[in-house]
Amino acid sequence: RVATPGGIDALAVDDRGRLIAAGLTAGAVLRIDPTNGATETLLFRPEIIWPDSLAKTTGGDVLVTVNHLNR
Hints:
71 residues, mainly beta, two-stranded antiparallel ribbon, 6 strands, 0% helix
């Protein structure tokens, strides 16, 4: 069980098996370690309104779409 700030929409998995999550209402991208439930904020900025989708490149970068649906 993991507590996250707000709803989660998209998920991706990094090279170490941790979840990368788009935190919709938190306006953040989070990393969650499923082995211990630790949650880390990877990206937070006031301009990130409703992060929606995630994609991981072959180089390991994570791409995020921000759609501002609630504006």
